[in-house]
Automatic annotation (TrEMBL):
This is Flavin prenyltransferase UbiX. Pfam families: Flavoprotein. Its EC number is 2.5.1.129. Keywords: Flavoprotein, FMN, Prenyltransferase, Transferase. It catalyses: dimethylallyl phosphate + FMNH2 = prenylated FMNH2 + phosphate. HAMAP family: ubiX_pad (MF_01984). One of its GO terms (molecular function) is carboxy-lyase activity. The keyword Kinase does not apply. InterPro entries: Flavin_trans-like, Flavoprotein, UbiX-like.
Length: 205
């Protein structure tokens, strides 16, 4: 039953931008739903373009694609169009545990760093900052120039967790799925959510 799961009654906001690596955000959403959380999903317009290019999603049938991908899991998915600035997650009075933007484009990161709340994703991130709630960004860009790094440093000094999309290999991954699961697991670690997505260093085989 959902109310027996760790995430029962708890809300997380997940943002997916137009940076390459949409599979990361999809896998994160799947895991949060499997743990019983309610996931408030926001996908930028560029994010939908990347869904099409990298995951073969039909961007013209957005809600149907999300139902096909995420339906039937223990938690509940709430999809918010990125232009819906009046959505629940745009208000600090809405009780969300925190927000994860995975992957996070440099454009979205810059908007968050400069308080430019011009769509629901950046507004929801601004809410997390002003309310002192966890905000995790997963930058996916290379190489990085000085403006990228300065924006990351600015946010890190405000308490934002930066978890760059940098895979590790000490757990001997054999598949792309294992590489993706490692990064999703590191993000969940950063907000204190238990999972079994990868074998930790020093654990028995």
């Amino acid at each position: 039953m959902v109310n027996e799961l760790a995430g029962a009654g708890r809300h997380w906001v997940v943002g997916i931008t137009g940076a390459s690596g949409s599979v990361y955000g999809i896998r994160l959403t799947e895991e949060l739903l499997d743990l019983g959380f309610t996931v408030h999903l926001v996908v930028s317009n560029a994010g939908w373009r990347v869904f099409k290019e990298e995951m073969d999603f039909d961007a013209s049938k957005r809600e149907q694609e999300l139902e096909h991908r995420f339906g039937g899991r223990a938690g509940r998915l709430v999809y918010h169009p990125v232009a819906d600035i009046g959505a629940s997650i745009a208000s600090g009075s809405f009780r969300a545990e925190g927000m994860i933007v995975m992957p996070c484009s440099m454009g979205t990161l810059s908007s968050i760093a400069h308080g430019s709340s011009d769509n629901l994703m950046t507004r929801a991130a601004d809410v997390m900052l002003k309310e002192g709630r966890p905000l995790v960004l997963v930058p996916r860009e290379t190489p990085l120039h000085a403006i990228h790094l300065e924006n990351m440093l600015k946010l890190a000094r405000l308490g934002v967790k930066m978890v760059p999309a940098m895979p590790a290999f000490y757990h001997r991954p054999r598949t792309l799925e294992e590489i993706v699961d490692f990064l999703v697991g590191k993000v969940l670690d950063s907000v204190g959510i238990d999972h079994n997505l990868f074998k930790r260093w020093g654990e028995e085989t």
